[in-house]
Amino acid sequence: FLVEYEEPLVESLPGVKNQQVVERIGHYVNMLVDDGSTLQIGFGHLPDAILPYLADKKHLGIHTQVITDGLLPLFRNKVITNRKKNYLPDRVVATLCMGSRALYDYVDNNPMFYFKSSDFVNDPNVIAKNDHFISISSALEVDLTGQVCSDSKGYLFYSGIGDQVDFIRGSSMSKGGFSIIIIPSTAQNGSISRIVPHLSEGAGVATTRGDIDIIVTEYGIAEMGRKSISQRVMELAQIAHPKFRKELIRQAKRRHYIFPDQLPPTSQDLLFLDSYHYSMKLSNGKRVEFRPLLPSDEFESRHFFYSLQEDSIYYRFFNKRKVFSRKMLQQQWAEVDYQRNMTLIGLMQLGKRKQIVAIGSYAEIGGDSAEVAFLVKEELHGMGIASFLLASLETIAKENHYKQFTATVLAENRKMLTVFKKRYPDAKFIRSASSEVEVEMPLP
């Protein structure tokens, strides 16, 4: 016998407890997602909760296992159009839908949705057919080397690993693609850190340290791809909750992940630094992204200095310096307090990694004056990078109540003197007997 029976569909309405954490993580994810990207949104409350913070994006695409309510406003407001997808354009590709009645009604008989089985949707080779594919998923714990636990609390299984590994590997195979793990910095009402020296006993490694690209907490973004263990430690320590940072560094030293004299990141909450992010499009079409120097930039800073020609080093330091020690670079970022002492770095995508191509800084010398200095890679001279850095540092300095910049420049360094003259027509140039020029620049 067949008996006809109807009942309402099961509804799932996810929610999160700490909206401030969601807002800050959503803010950082927004910074990472470009217009036209194709997204996978992982299972869980947090991935669903950060979706409203993508509302200003354009022409996003979706290729994911599960459709949730967080996507509904993005569908309705045409944030998600799927027009830029390489594979199955104009279609949302998914395996299942779980959410409210409103979501079910929107999906029902909607030709935009293309539902297929998991062996198709989760196939890394299928995922990789879309360029600029970004996988966004959550975790329970991350250790200092980048191992991710997302399915168990110790020996207690919390969930399965689901589609996480498939989409992370698919995104890494995608042209311009990458993966993001989002995780609150603490658990149990802030009493324990989710970034840990080692995973809990019994915890499983869902995603290996070799697969991970980016980890985001409410304290920032850690770029993990193609980084050494010591670099990873610094990346993760600076996005851990401030009260756990020193202990994480201590534990990393005990395990010989980092040098014994490694300084811990500041215990400040550096959210305010997000307003000091700038972007400049060069005449060759490439883009340079500027942001404040962080402890995790130590290795790339050394690489930058060693890549410069002898003349550039001489113009900056007034000597032919050959060695840029780890201790020297560590001291540089340790002195940066982002108010009296500020350093901005310029980053450019070169191959699969971002490299430092410019550094500009100011440091208080007393009262309302600060000294400025710059270095730009030689092949990028004449493109306005130093002028852009100077203007950006001026904005920050004025916020911190400085009224004058000064600089000491070799008389033969005409390019730098020209930058100052153009920006500050009323600047004073005082030539000394030692072929140095003291420049005094009142800030407008």
Name the features.
444 residues; Glutaconate Coenzyme A-transferase; Aminopeptidase; alpha/beta; 6-stranded mixed beta sheet; 27% helix
Walk me through this protein's architecture.
With 444 residues, this protein is α/β, with parallel strands linked by helices. It has 2 domains: 19-254, Acetyl-CoA hydrolase/transferase C-terminal domain (Glutaconate Coenzyme A-transferase, 3-Layer(aba) Sandwich), CATH 3.40.1080.20; 271-442, Gcn5-related N-acetyltransferase (GNAT) (Aminopeptidase). It is built from 14 helices and 25 strands. An 8-stranded mixed beta sheet has the order 18-19-20-21-22-23-25-24, sandwiched between helices. A 6-stranded mixed beta sheet has the order 2-1-7-12-16-17, sandwiched between helices. α10 (298-307) crosses α12 and α13 packs across α14 (414-423). The mean pLDDT is 94.
What are the SSEs and their pairings?
Blueprint: H1 19-32, E1 38-41, H2 45-49, E2 61-62, E3 66-67, H3 72-76, E4 92-94, E5 96-97, H4 101-107, E6 113-115, H5 118-121, H6 124-127, E7 133-138, E8 141-143, E9 148-149, E10 152-153, E11 156-157, H7 164-173, E12 178-182, E13 186-187, E14 192-193, E15 195-196, E16 214-217, E17 220-223, H8 229-237, H9 245-254, E18 278-281, E19 287-292, H10 298-307, H11 310-317, H12 326-335, E20 341-350, E21 353-366, E22 369-376, H13 385-399, E23 404-410, H14 414-423, E24 428-431, E25 436-442
Parallel strand pairs: 1-2, 1-7, 3-5, 4-6, 7-12, 8-15, 12-16, 22-23
Antiparallel strand pairs: 8-9, 10-11, 13-14, 16-17, 18-19, 19-20, 20-21, 21-22, 23-25, 24-25
